[in-house]
Amino acid sequence: MLRAFAVAALFLGTSVVTRAQPAATLTAEALLSDRLGLSSAEVARFAAGEVISRSVPETADNEIAAVGALRGAGNVKRLVAWLRDIESFMRAAGTQNVGAIKAPATAADFARLNLDDVDFADLASCRPGRCVVRMPAAYLQRFQKEVNFKAPDARAQAAALTRTLVAEYVAAYQKGGDAAVGALHDPSAPDQSANQFRDMLRRSTKAWDLAFPFVSYLETYPAAAPARIDSRFYWTRDAAIRKPTLTLHHVVLEELQGGRVLLADKQFYASRDLDAALMIALAIPTSDYKRFDLIVAVKARAGAISGVTGRVLRGRIENEMTEGLRTYLEWVRDSMKL
Question: Same structural domain for residues 256 and 326?
């Protein structure tokens, strides 16, 4: 599941505080102990070079969250350069069905999107709000109008239209952010589809406290970009909650003073299950750039894990998230040594 969000990345907690970026000066130990609440024993293990990963309290009953940290060898500038080639980074991390997306997006960006296991026939009878695949009602109407599901090449027609519509969706986000894609889902209530992400982000008060301009940009994109912000976009079609799920991601990097880097991976669409997901991270290099600290947090929301009925599934996914985060950080540590 973590691979759906796999980008190196910080500190999501639980009233928005608008202050300067202490992320530019805070030490990793202070961040882990004072802000994230890790025990002195956990901080000592981190300082000794052990990868730390554990779940943290959620801020809603449909949410899971985890934090992790590593101290490793290597030049953080190399990590940043790797992240700018996001497709190569994701493939190296183990995600096979992935692709970079240009700005503006085009259908060609999704040429390698593997749709072989999709049962497009379901779309012939789907109704808005009652379809296994989450999509704007207008997109569903286009499938039912433009695809001849009785034709021998119905699958090819549906696959081609999928790539076209996904590209239109990404291009809308790139031009107008969450409000633009919200309008695709419901023109009369364009904020509705973004509410889960907005609520999740606004409850993450430690992130706002530590990096207000950066976190604010995740919500207001493409407006009010801080200086030295760099964006990348990519898609994956990996298994999320054990079912193949198309996810669309916005990667944001900001270089801070002293060579520090803020990183974020915002999921702005999932074809099923995941209502919102976010990774944020802080990379802190030593003055000689021979070593670095990386503090990571990930949050995800899904209706399937809410309430009493979702407790078992929540626990299972929470374990997968923390173990996946640990595996991922170990991979970053080992890769940066090479």
Answer: yes
Q: How many domains is the chain built from?
A: 2
Q: What is the residue range of 161's domain?
A: 116-185
The helices-and-strands tally (H runs, E runs) of the chain is 10, 8
88 and 204 in a single domain? The answer is yes
CB atoms within 10 A of CB 39: 10
Last residue of a domain, one of 161, 185, 209: 185
Q: How far apart are CA 136 and CA 14, in angstroms?
A: 31
**Rg, the chain, Cα only:** 20
Q: What is the pLDDT of residues 244-277, one digit of tens each?
A: 889 999 999 999 989 999 999 999 999 987 888 9
CATH number where 222 lies: 3.30.530.20
Percentage of residues in the chain having pLDDT higher than 70: 92
**How far lies 94's CA from each of 6, 71, 90, 166, in Å?**
9, 22, 6, 23
Model confidence, pTM: 0.90
91 close to 83: Cβ distance less than 8 angstroms: no
Q: How many angstroms separate the CA atoms of 338 and 217, rounded?
A: 34
Q: 54-82: per-residue pLDDT in tens?
A: 998 888 888 999 999 999 999 999 999 99
